[in-house]
Every structure is written in C-alpha cells, then in structure tokens.
Amino acid sequence: MITDLATLLTPKEMADADAAAAASGVNSYGLMEKAGWAVAAAALRLYPQTGRFVVLCGPGNNGGDGYVAARALAEAGGRVQIFVLDVAFEPAGDAGISRRACPLPALPLSDLSLRDGDTIIDAVFGAGLARDVPADLREVIAAVEASGLPVIAVDLPSGLCGRRGVPLGGAFSATHTVTFMARKPGHLLMPGRSLCGDVEVVDIGIPWRIVRSAGRALRVNQPSLWRRLLPKPDSGSHKYKRGHLVVFSGGASHTGAARLSAEAGLASGAGLVTVASPPDAMGTNAGHLTAVMLREVKNPDEIGEWLASGKLSAFVLGPGFGVGAKARDFVLALDGHPLVLDADGITSFRDCPDPLFDAYRGETRLVLTPHEGEFARLFPDIGDDFELSKVEKAVAAARRSNAVVVYKGADTVIAAPDGRAAVNENAPPWLATAGSGDVLAGMIGALLANGMPAFEAAAAGVYLHGEAALRAGEGMTAEALVHAIRPLDVD
After folding, report:
1. What does the buried/exposed string (b/e) look like for 352-368 if buried means 16 or more CB atoms within 10 Å of the residue's CB?
2. What is the number of other CB atoms lying within 10 angstroms of the CB of residue 145?
3. For residues 99 and 70, what is the distance between their CA atoms, to the nearest angstrom?
4. DSSP letter string over 148-167?
5. What is the pLDDT of residues 103-145, one digit of tens each?
C-alpha cells in the first residue's frame, strides 16, 4: 500500500530504483508480475462490461507489464487480443520471459480494428520514452482518440515524456493510469496531467528505502513537506511575534492589487500588515483599509529609515506597483530583507537582473513568483530551452538567482537554489482569475514574516492558496479567495 504520495521520481530515478532493487536481491520478474496483475485488476474493476481488452505491447518492460496483464485478463475470463509494433521482435530480459509466459498470440498493430465495447490497455512505451512515437502508433493513437474508447495506460500514456510532461509527436489520452511505487513528473506537469486521467499508484514491492533514496530533491507539494514549520499561535503570541508584513502600493489608479496582497497577508497569519503607499494614493488606500495599516513612503531613502526604526519582517513588491526604475530602487533599498517579488517587480529587472540577484546572494530570502511570460523575461535563455522540463527550468532559475522560484501555472513548480523542487496539484482551474496572484504573494509574504524558511513558505503558500480556491468555489473573485483563506486548516 502506498503511504507517501508526495514522492515523485523522474524516469531515470525510477530506473535507478528498479536496478537497485534487483541488485539487493528483489526478483525483478516478480515486480513485473505484480505490475501486470495490478493493471488487469484495474481494468476488471473499472470496465467489467468490456467486450474485448485490446492490449498494446511495446518492446521493453512496459510491454512486459502488458503481457502479464493480458494473461491475467484472459485467465479471469476476459476476451483479450494483443497487438505489437513488430511481431518478429523478441523482447529481452524480463519482458521476454513475460512474452513467452503469455499463451496469447501477438498480432501486428496494422491488424487492429477497433470495436464498440473495447477497452484499450496501453503498454507500449510508458515513462521512459525519449523520442517521437513511430508513425504507425500515431495512427492508432488518433483512431483511439476518435473512437472515444476507454484507455488504461501502464505507467504513463505512451508518447508522453515522463520527465517533461509533453507529447512526443502524439500521445494517448488515458482515462486511467496505473503507475508503480511513485508518480513521475509527466503525471503532474501540463499538458501531461490532462492526458493521464485518474492516476493510481501501486506498490509492487520495491523497498521504500530504495525508492526514497533514488529521488530526494523532487516532491509533490503536500503538507508533509512544510506542516511542521507552519506558524502556530500560542498563549505567548503577540502581533509582533507573528511578524510585520509590508506591501508596496502603486499609484492612485493602481492600488487594488496591493490591498489584495495585504489583506491576504493578514488572513494568512501576519501579526501586522502595512501598505506602503506613495503620496498620491494615500487617500484611495485609506478609504479601503481597516485592520491593515497605512504608511506614506515616497522614496528609497525613506525605506532605509523605516528599516532602521521599525520591526519589519517581510515585504511584497510588484502587485500594481508599476514597471521601471522606481521598482528597482525600492527593491535594492530593502537591503536583502525577506521579499516576495511579483508581477511588475519581476518585469522591472528584465533588462538588468544581476543587481537583484547580487542583492540576495546570502541566505535565501527572496521569493520570485513569475507566470510563464514573466519567467521568460527574467530568464530568457532558460525559458527558451525546450529540452528542459518546467521543474528543471525552475531549479536552474533558482540557482542563478539564489531565490525560491514559484513558477506559476496549473502545474505550479516551487524550486530552491539547493535543487529542491515541488510540483503543486491541488489548484482548481478557477484560480485563473484577476487578482489571484496578488493574493498568493501576500500569503507567501505572511509566512515569511512569521519566520518560515523561504522554500517552505512558498510551498505552503501555494498549497494553501489552492485550498482557499477550492473552499471559495467556482466563479470566485479574488476578494472571495481572501475570505476563504484558512492558514492552519491542513490535513
């Protein structure tokens, strides 16, 4: 039984775990048998009325899993036909043993004619594919897609890159995916996530000490990563102990984003929150703020004076602030204090990122929260490298900037300079609404103000942001999202 769904392994790490298990004395063919039986069990459980199970087997171990599944389905009384890319090809190793143990004939892929009532078992390539799928398989993928028949993918839909989550010339769209021991990045990164259907993780018997040692840096963003570091008020708590968050406002016509961030910071547990406002926006901000405080800040020199005299814990700059030299000057005046840099703040450094990165070369205290366009502006060479996965891009950016990078999207990735990364999966699609990013910046800022380390603060903020959106429901506004924040309500 899988007990740790936060584990995430790249295809190479999974292959290393398989090899380490075999080297430790685990019977590798026994693992294949368990994998194939799990696939057959899922097919019988999900589609008991299937007229024919069409099992598509590839040349490697994924195909070996398919032969085991086909044999198990036939033994259970199902009608089964196996189709392969190359009938003359004899698989090696465990896959060959599996093929020889299966009494069913293997038919050429060109003979496949789909029928109503079929269920497709996709055991062609799995997670390890690194090249475009062959043309004959692309034709089958298109035919299956047009038919609307259910597809159970073994490990990962064939054609989908397990590392990057992108189709390699074409990929099956599965209704259900059975994977083993741990999910792969391709199960979570878009568009791969949308092609996997429901993902079932099956423990086939590789010792967990081997699985965990195979991949420590990449995880699924779940509370187990950061729950113990969440700030918890106690009888000795007071507002200064819970941190003072400062959010910088834009001019009079651009104040709403900063107020959203500030209100989200207060709802997320900051003891005090102040909006730092330019003179022309003081009246507008004053008319909308109650528990959030307000202070006029005209220039970078006043930031330095405030830092010297105030108990300021963390800052948010960017939402509605405006792009340009003022944003750069304000950031550099913060003198390396904990900062969430978002939106306009990120874009302001697109032509000259080095002063920003140099200002935060010590302890990691900077959190960058770019969406795809902002990421490309600040890290153009990394963003344009299509051989890198979103995780690899985020980690490369984090190392370059010495910042925690929250690379936003439906598959938000949080990455640290030391190589740790987490992929988020709980955010609903209705989070794609105006102001939600401003709310996220304030949530992360509040956790930084409470003293959480930058990586854990960012990961917790992203996850709690998703939970708030689920609580607020479809059709929510950013204001409703703020009211739905429950910083300590995690399983």
Report:
1. ebeebeebbeeebbbbb
2. 14
3. 10
4. T--EEEESS-TTB-TTT--B
5. 999 999 999 999 999 999 999 998 888 899 999 999 999 999 9
**Measured between alpha carbons, how far is 246 from 255 in angstroms, rounded to an integer?**
14
**pLDDT per residue as tens digits for the range 24-37:** 999 999 999 999 99
Distance CA(46)–CA(41), nearest Å, equals 8
Amino acid at 475: G
Q: Identify the helix (H) or strand (E) that includes residue 466.
A: helix 454-472
Distance separating alpha carbons of residues 1 and 410, to the nearest angstrom: 28
Which tokens go with 485? 């924040």
Please check the confidence at residue 401 and state whether its pLDDT lies above 90.
yes
What b/e readout covers 246-281, taking b as 16+ CB neighbours within 10 angstroms?
bbbbbbeebbbbbbbbbbbbbbbbbbbbbbbbbeeb
DSSP-assigned states of every residue in 399-423: HHHTSEEEE-STT-EEE-TTS-EEE
Based on its alpha-carbon atoms, the radius of gyration of the chain, rounded to whole angstroms, reads: 26
Q: Rounded distance, CA 45 to CA 35, Å? A: 15
Q: For position 126, what pLDDT does the model report?
A: 87
d(CA 254, CA 314): 22
Measured CA to CA in angstroms, residue 45 lies from 38, 49, 357 at distances of 10, 10, 53
Question: Which amino acid appears at position 334 of this protein?
Answer: L
Q: Are 217 and 421 in contact (CB under 8 A)?
A: yes
- 291 within 8 A of 259, measured Cβ to Cβ: no
SS3 assignment, position 107: strand
Per-residue pLDDT band for 1 (boundaries 50, 70, 90) equals very low
Tokens of 273: 């929150």
Q: Examine the pLDDT at 172 and tell me if it is beyond 70.
A: yes
Q: Collapse the DSSP code of 361 into the 3-class scheme (helix H, G, I; strand E, B; otherwise coil) and give the result.
A: coil
